[in-house]
Amino acid sequence: MIGNDIIDLNLAFKQSNWQRRGFLQKIFTTDEQDFILNAENPELNVWLLWSMKESVYKAVQRKYHLEPFNNPKRFVCKQVEINSGKARGVVCFEEDACEINSILFSDVIHTCTANTEFSFISENKNSRIRLLQKISDQKNIPLESLNISKNKQGVPFLTYRGDNLQIPFSLSHHGDYSAFALSLNLS
Amino acid sequence: MKEKDILDAIKKIVTPYTQRKEGLENFSKETDFIKDLEVNSANLVDVILDVEDKFDIEIDNDSMEGMLTVGDAKNIIERKLASA
After folding, report:
1. How many domains are contained in chain B?
2. Rounded to whole angstroms, how far apart are CA atoms B80 and A14?
3. In which domain, by residue range, is B66 found?
4. How close, in Å, is residue A141 to chain B by CA atoms?
């Protein structure tokens, strides 16, 4: 189960007004709202929890071949701890409890499911090619034979000369930033 | 309320959040907020809040879950208006 999410904080602050009436209530459980509102920096916590939910949404959508859906409240963040530029927690979705890790920089948050083996953050939009490069190196496959396609649910998958490699990965981009998460020892 | 009026109102609501403006040119019930208009997922929440304000309805999370296209939004609005 692999998912990741990157948030360009400067852009998020511009694109969304988290203090808008009803905004938090649509996305977060009451416990999550308390966590956010009691934090030293509520806005940062809005986007931290959001990125955790998004990462696990991508992970379960991939794992269970789910059609896209829009209901962030079904992803419940628990045991979130923030410590010197890092955060960790668990996101529950139905029967699954997925551990997640985040890195917090001054202007970007990157969150990955904890089973991620390789991750990458870029200030450019080049994560797609960097992901292919990484797989090419690790698997000893020529880069030009690798491709990314999307299934009917919109979930991307990796192909080698047209065959699905069954390698779970996740790509994310927001504003100037892009990122990937990848694991080669899961199917 | 006529279907066309609802679709026009949805178009007006979604326009400021649309990152792919050419997606608005063939705006229809099939238009997908994320795929065709590249509305970011946090702004999808704003779309829903704007729809609630505009039509004076409440969209619960179960209805919100399947609101991915303009047609989905239209159906939910019509249903809520009928039961209001």
Report:
1. 1
2. 31
3. 3-83
4. 31
B42 contact residues in A (CB cutoff 8 A)? 12, 15-16, 50
Q: Is the pLDDT of residue A37 over 60?
A: yes
CB neighbour list of residue A78: distance below 8 Å, 6 or more residues apart: A89, A90, A91, A92, A97
Is the predicted pLDDT of residue A99 greater than 90, yes or no?
Answer: yes
**Average pLDDT taken over every residue of chain A:** 96
pLDDT at B1 over 90: no
How big is chain B, counted in residues? 84
Task: Judge whether A26 lies within some domain.
Answer: yes
Residue A18 has what DSSP assignment? T
Which residues of chain B neighbour A16 with C-beta distances below 8 Å? 42-43, 45-46
| Domain of residue B71, CATH code | 1.10.1200.10
Give the domain CATH number at A136: 3.90.470.20
Contacts of A71 (CB under 8 A, 6+ apart): B61, B62, B64, B65
Give A23's Cβ-side CA count (13 Å radius).
18
Residue A187 lies in a domain: no
Residues in contact with B15: Cβ distance below 8 Å, sequence separation at least 6, in sequence order: B24
Q: Which residues of B touch A69 (CB under 8 A)?
A: 65-66, 68
